[in-house]
Amino acid sequence: MPTIPPLRYVAPPFSLLALAGFYFIVVHMVASKAPLRFLEVHKASQVPLALTHISLLDKMLTPLVSFFIAAFGDPSSPAYPTTIDFVWSFGSAIQLPLIEAQRVGMDAPSMSRSVLAWPMIWGVLYQRVSGGWILPLWLLAFMRSKTRAAGAGIGKIEAESVFAGWWLGHTIPALAMLVPGQSPFTRPPIWIAFPILMSLAQHGYYCARRSLCPASTRNNDNTRSGYVILQLTYLSAFVLSCIAHIHSVIIPGLLSAPAPSSIPTHLHYLLTTYLYNFFIPPTGLRIPSPESTTAASGVRHFVQWDVLVVFAAVWLAGIWDLVLRRHDRDASKKGHEGKNCVWAVVGFVGGVTASLFVTALALGPGAATAGLYAYRESVMEEARARRRTDAQNGVTASDSLVDETSRLNPDRVVRYD
């Protein structure tokens, strides 16, 4: 079982990322008066300000609705391509809490596991105050989870429920909201509630599937069939992110190159100017001026920082997890020396990071994230397959781990899926 990193190593980077998300998103938004610009757009729309007619609840919901009206209500807005790319890229990040809550052993008593077992609560928090602030905190708990370290699988029905929850709660409502040629919003788009919708759809599918599935079939269920469905879930996020990124970023970037232009000119402009301006806030680290902040610039600033912080945190956690698994796999190799191990880790981290950046620029950060975690799942499935083979051959858990890692701790427990 891969090592659980000590809290003193895990807490600083993810806490700093959470603080960065809070400062560059929440503080910048308030200081630049962007919420007032969103409210102006909301008042000018056909969407009522009072949604529930319950004063306290409306005070909580109105700023959220105002932001989404400003972000998605006007397809001609200069911020619209940024928000479109964000919706489909963010879809791969929000899969993770839903998936990890279904891991085998998640219901065991553990603070980190019980925290991860409530994706809807995390979703409501990141929807209300930004993913850049909340998701790094979820990833901190994720890295400290014994379920993550064990590489536990997901049963077939659980994997199906995740697939259904993500599609029914997030993807289909987003598609309905973003269909071209729609009339202006007259009510808040249902997609706003996607964290709640995803969890409800996932739980509803799970309960229905369990009630319709014979008990004998449920008892024979295993994580191998769940693995295939899980990879299909990652593939869905990958494909949708690719389509959205190419449509909203790459093609407009290539077509907007200044004349006279050629293919090299188009590519040079795309790589050096357009993509930089698309992902990097124009004010840099500074708080935008309230006098110059508009609804569109406020939306874009929020989304750009959300993308930078969220995907930095998600990639850090994914790479860190893979490094731990590689170390666990390679520790027993003959001639394995510490110096060589360090350079191997540096090379691996550098290669994966470069691949993520290239993929994010070409196909979208969501596609890069989906690919990273699909690869992680395949690494865990290979380890689970080795353990199943050892079990079938009569190899004990201790013998198997000694043979693989040469550093078994007596108190470690290996789950056979």
From TrEMBL:
Keywords: Membrane, Transmembrane, Transmembrane helix. The chain crosses the membrane at residues 12-31, 51-72, 116-140, 161-178, 190-208, 228-251, 302-320, 341-363. It comes from the Eukaryota. This is Uncharacterized protein. It comes from Rickenella mellea.
